[in-house]
Specification:
The chain is built from 5 helices and 2 strands; from the N terminus they run αααβαβα. It is mostly helical and 135 residues long.
Length: 135
């Protein structure tokens, strides 16, 4: 078809983005989103540890789970694997899963079966440990 070169929907992804944008704006303040995005961009837990992320994790007392999606451009799997390596270097317990997904950064918002199954199993394990430790 003919391209409109305007705000009409010429590509399938545009209808998805319009829908997600409408849903998002109904539930989230745009200024808050901008501030959160900026905070994420500036946040560097290694800054107080001479750039060594493993040192930043050294005093943590929890288990970690990282899930990455192959097509996520905002938090790419390569960065997640770096974080996993720093957690292991710090002697922390970490679970990591990379999921093949075409949905990009929004994949975690969608019902990706492998993601749901893995995350649910992880939470059930943590919950069971809490119960066992309490009895």
């Amino acid at each position: 078809g003919k391209l409109s070169f305007g705000l009409n929907t010429d590509f399938q992804v545009e209808s998805y983005l319009h829908y997600q944008g409408e849903r998002f704006s109904e539930n989230f303040d745009a200024n808050t989103y901008l501030l959160m995005t900026k905070a994420l961009d500036y946040f560097d837990p290694a800054v107080d540890f001479d750039g060594d992320l493993s040192k930043a994790f050294a005093d943590t007392n929890c288990k970690f789970m990282l899930i990455s999606f192959s097509s996520d451009w905002r938090f790419p799997p390569e960065r997640s694997r770096e974080i996993v390596n720093d957690l292991l270097k710090a002697g922390r317990e970490v679970t990591y899963l990379e999921i093949e997904a075409d949905q990009g950064h929004d994949a975690f918002l969608l019902p990706v079966p492998r993601y749901i199954k893995a995350f649910s199993a992880y939470l059930k394990r943590i919950h069971q440990k809490i119960i066992n430790d309490a009895t």
